[in-house]
Amino acid sequence: MRAIFAILFSVLSIFSVDASPQDTLKTVPKDSVLITSFTQNRHLSSIPTPLISTGTLKLWPQKGLIWATEHSFPSTLIISKSGLYQIENGQPKVLEKATQSDMVFKILSAILAGNFLKGLEGFDITLVSQDKSQWHVKLAPQNSQIKNFITAFSIQGHEQIQRITICRANGDYDDIVFTNHKIAPLKKALSSQELRWLND
Amino acid sequence: MTEGFYHFLRFSWLTLLLVLTGISLKDQSIQFDLLALLPDSKTEKMVHVRQFMDDTDIAKQVTILVGHKDKKIAQKALETLRQGLQTSGLRLIENDTKSLEKSYKALFTDLYPYKAALLSQQDRALLQNNKGNDIENRALQELNTPFSTLGPANLAADPFFLFPRYVTSLQNQNTFERNAETGDIFITDQETTWFIYHAHFTTPLFSLQAQKNLLEKLDPILEGLKVDVLKTGAVFYGAAGATQAQKEISFIGGISALLIVLLLFFVFRSFAPLGFALTVIASGLAGGISLAFLVYGSLHILALVFGGSLIGVCVDYALHYYCASLHTKDKKSSFGVLKSLMPALPLGVLSSCIGYGLLTLVPFPGIQQMAVLAAGGLLSAFITVTLWGPAFLKTGSQPAPPIAYKIQQTLSAFLEKRKPTSKPLLAVLFSSFFVIFFINFDDNVRHFQSLDPVLKAQESAIKSKIHLSTVPTFFALSASSLEELLQQEEKITDQLETLNISYKSLSQIVPSQKRQLENQRLIQENLIAPYVHSLFQKLGVFRPVLQQETVGLLKSIPPLPAPLKPLFHQSKGTYTGRILIPNPENSEALNDIVNPLENAYYIDPPQEYSSLFKTYRLLMMKVIGAVLGIIILLLAFLKGPKSALKITAPAMYSMILTLVCLTALGVPITLFHLMGLLLVLCIGIDYALFLFWRKDSNEKSFFLLANTMAALTTLFSFGVLAFSKTAAVEAFGLSVFLGITFNFIFTTLYLGRK
User: Fold this and answer.
1) Which of the four pLDDT bands, split at 50, 70 and 90, describes residue B326?
2) Full-model pTM
3) Nearest-CA distance from A174 to chain B in Å?
4) Which of A25, B206, B492, B539 has the fewest CB atoms below 10 angstroms from its CB?
């Protein structure tokens, strides 16, 4: 689960200027925030139709991520150095302490720096396909602990990350599509409250 | 009595002493457990403290963190530490964290079939307040986010994620990362990776040698790692304390011994008095310890230390004997010198032995052992003085050494010139009222701990990084059946929930059957019936198929992981549960919870030990009063009440003035101060007895000199302890230092003139 955070953070900040991830990857500038809309389809084996939710994601590299679901069930999740939180009545409530924050943010930094294709600790990277308009990368965890929950990440993109598919060990999978990418300066992108959430 | 028979007695006594010492010390056993000081009718609370300490083995636990900014270097350091400890010979076994994870997994696997009756406290409260809608919304959020913390969805068996939330509510605060290759656990704190080494000793390290051994072997290993190292554990504090104590024993003891040797040689110009004093002390210790071991089979370390210190009185017998020999012509006669010390010397021994003897009636093993040891030691010393005294004296009549003569004459002249006045005594009486109103007592066991500051800082640093098990306060409940115990626990935990006090209890893991039935009802009536169809409809499932539960109630305790085992103790048909309170803030509120219940106690282990100290302090106050009373009665029987008060007044006043001074200095009175006052009383009475019963004037006798030498040797041997950094020893030494000084002054002023 924690690897999901890492991968999610990292790949969202990847820009491709070419069909190849190496050529297209761009880092989010310092003191800038990546803002994107997402549509998530959760395919659970016990439910015949996928659970669909939409919302907005804000990524501040090296600090954290705000996952704000607007539909179908509004909620705001914060992933920062200190852990995973859910916002209730404007206050962050801890769901999980960031005991593996070191791993999460190392992966995050590697991805944002554009180095994940040279080797990402704990993952095997495979380029599945590439053409002029899109590339497709697959990440498979080496760690047996992660493998018990996640079997693979599938990432597709061009200049921006367009799709992430998270494949789970029990057959469930999440299909997340990203649109409307924007890069904004920190002070414009995040409210003072959001800044506090990510800094604490 | 012929000289030949006298020699026979002398060597028979030596032989007897050696044989007794050999027999008694053959299978000696020294106890260190404070609970062994308590009478057989131990308080229930102390029994629970003891059981808890045995069940948790906290005293044997060790935690070492090795850290470095480079994770690989930190990992390597851990491996080096492990190898070093394996070859060191230390009986240290690493805690198996992997099997601990497995044991938790096994526990939750055992509990899973009963999930329909298991609820986290938070969910139970929501259902009791008809807030099932909140649980439904929470489940929907959980299902709609990719960042699930409760594991994969199991909609058929547990659509509302009740069991995962129950499991989460029970889990340890610590969640470490695990190195995928080695399985070692670590945490990351401000860019430094800390690998954690948890271990325990197979036996508690109580002896000084074992603790010294630990530091000698472990310190080089830790220094050789070349990384940041933090360590904590009761054994380290004990070892640091032992090292400190040994340094002090060597330094203070060395200074003390040197001063005494120099004093005796300077005054007497001979090593004979020193040799005689050491012989008397050695015989006193041998006789006292042998007798105590023969009577009790084992001795507590505190009884050994304090009983042994009481035997220090006997050095005064040797000094008085030697000083008396200075004005005795027939030194080599068996009773030549002894006659001049009658009846003061045997009376001093008798009064002390009777006083100590009566202490054996007190039902506290520690006091009884100390009494037998001290009484036996004084008696043994007296016999040695009587039989071996002449062997240390020079033959023929010889003048007193010049310094000795000068001291005696100076004191004598001063007393002759001094006008008798009772003003100092009145001042003491007046100041005693001050003592009564302002005196403070301190029984807090924590104040007697002189914890090494470096270790304390390391412990704080470790606690800032990981949750560390320390001795919590806890509720202890006993019952004759598991169901009764769990229901009792739930009465308490419900109140703790109301007070928002965090806790850990057996009933959180295994609710009572009554509670399980309630949970089943709450889940069915307040959650499943009103909300399950709504939940599935929102998920797009219009014909939900739910698993039917066929398993009954959980009626026994599954195997518990090691950290949870202290929550339950069963022996001899009694079930004992413990509700641990990690962060107690309001002891009164916690005590109020348990007061109406039977067989239930709120226990604060340090507080219980403090209560034990208070009990002993109060007892010691009574002991001092009793010993003083017995001595007064004995003297009144022999010489009348007026003389009895005259003899005992200096000792009484010196004890009062000691308390006044300590109170004026803002020093709260502790058990150890009172132990010192008991010594002051026993020694002080002897000073008075020798002066009161002397037959010759000051010009012809050397009793003033003897008292002076006795006081100085006592100050050099016990008074220097006031400079110790160990709180208990410092208190004892300070009390003796002040008490003996005042006692010498009062005795000389009011009984010094013949």
Assistant:
1) confident
2) 0.76
3) 7
4) B206
